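SDR family oxidoreductase
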Amino acid sequence: AAWITEFVTSVEDDRPRVAASGRHAERFGGQLVLVTGAGSGIGRATALAFAEAGARVVAVDRDAEAAARTAESSLRAGAPAAWAETADVSDEQAMERLAAKVGAEYGVVDVLVNNAGIGLSGSFFDTTPEDWKKVLDINLWGVIHGCRLFGGRMAERRQGGHIVNVASAAAYQPSRALPAYSTSKAAVLMLSECLRAELAGQGIGVTAVCPGFVNTAITSTAHFAGVDADEEKRLQRRTARIYGLRNYPPEKVAAAILRAVARNEAVVPVTPEARGARVLSRFAPGI
Ligand code: NAD
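Structure:
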């Protein structure tokens, strides 16, 4: 059947998507790129990739020192300018202050990457209302604040732009272990598709990036809030066994983000299992 062919191809077709040299074909010279959660993992790798591609970078994180390290590394990687800003993306007032400062001092953001997020594992009945609130406040509301504040200024400017929201394969892959996290990411995926439709006429692209397991602090068990460490380890081992992979580096997700912006892609599953699960969810949801 067609979906089997597409499934197998999507899982196997990893290598051609990533430049062997690790260099990015895309150039973002003169553009202002703001990345949230830029202090670590995918956000840090993305900030550095845009820096290598010539962009001016605003590295935002709630961890001030981590944001500062990314800004310094961005300059070394080739960014003509880079700034560190401290903000908690779930804090509406802090995000308004950030947007006002960025607008006044650095300019209108050309590419916004709403990447900041936290992991949360535990079955539905193990997940407390406080846990739900925490994960939705950061993973969903953080994206909403970013899109409203920076996307709004992009739209007013009338010169186009691009918004990348980092969702997850968890957005379309049901899991007993991650109900709150998966729900937050499914909402980010739908939000991105709705906003893409709304902003298309204004030359603003919106992309939802959906990674599977990536080797960052969030997938190291210590970093998961409220965590069932054994379950998380078990999931990782199972994924590794099924797909024969481990240690998918955040730099590859960053490369996929740059490509998605350059090509204005809508939904981008990254990592072989994320692509495979996307095909299954569309063509064979019962499997
Ligand atoms: P990470 O923990 O390495 O990095 C997350 C960064 O976000 C940290 O620097 C942290 O300080 C920052 N952050 C967290 N909450 C914040 C807040 N409220 N305000 C501002 N900054 C905040 O994790 P990562 O794996 O790089 O995750 C980045 C994004 O990718 C997340 O949205 C995550 O859900 C998503 N994702 C990760 C994976 C994976 O396997 N690593 C898979 C799919 C999706």
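Residues 36-37, 39-43, 61-63, 66, 88-90, 115-118, 138, 142, 166, 168, 211, 213-214, 216-219, 223, 250 surround nicotinamide-adenine-dinucleotide (CB under 6 Å).
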